[in-house]
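cron nightly-structures :: item 1 of 1
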Amino acid sequence: MAATIKQLETRLKRVEQELAELRKALAAKQKLETLKKHPPNLVSDWLKEKVNISWMPRSFSCNPELRVLRRVGPDRAKLVILFEAFDNKGARAQNCDMMLQL
């Protein structure tokens, strides 16, 4: 009977460890979902300052588009944003596009 109690205690510890790992994974997933919603807003604010987009002709504008957001570790993510460039008439100017990877 003592062996059975010991086995149950060992099994309980393993289950508790697995539960803690699942909670960490869930928290990381929630952070990633939050990150999916906020980068476009942050990037749009960043784009308002012309100093940040000196690579683009002055008469052009750009539209940031989130292309990739992937978890690459427990607390790390890969983020790729495409800045689609448009000329002053609204036509696409692919030669001025820029890809930002974080």
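cron nightly-structures :: done
Helices lie at 2-37, 39-47.
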